[in-house]
Amino acid sequence: MEGQVKLFGVNIFDYKWKETGEWVKVIDPLYHVEKSFFFTK
């Protein structure tokens, strides 16, 4: 199953992903822990 992830019918690993240099920080509403995620395109 590795590499076979489909999102809206499209295998997301068929594409090259690049970091945009942008980040977002969120607070988990259940555990109140800060998480950081980077954007890709």
Give your account of this protein's structure.
The structure is a single chain. The protein is mainly beta and 41 residues long. 0% of the residues lie in helices and 49% in strands. It is built from no helices and 4 strands. The protein has strands spanning 6-7, 10-11, 19-27, 34-40. The strands form 2 sheets. A two-stranded antiparallel ribbon has the order 1-2. A two-stranded antiparallel sheet has the order 3-4.
What is the element layout, followed by pairings?
Elements: E1 6-7, E2 10-11, E3 19-27, E4 34-40
Could you name the key traits of this structure?
two-stranded antiparallel sheet, 41 residues, 49% strand, mainly beta, 4 strands, flat, 0% helix
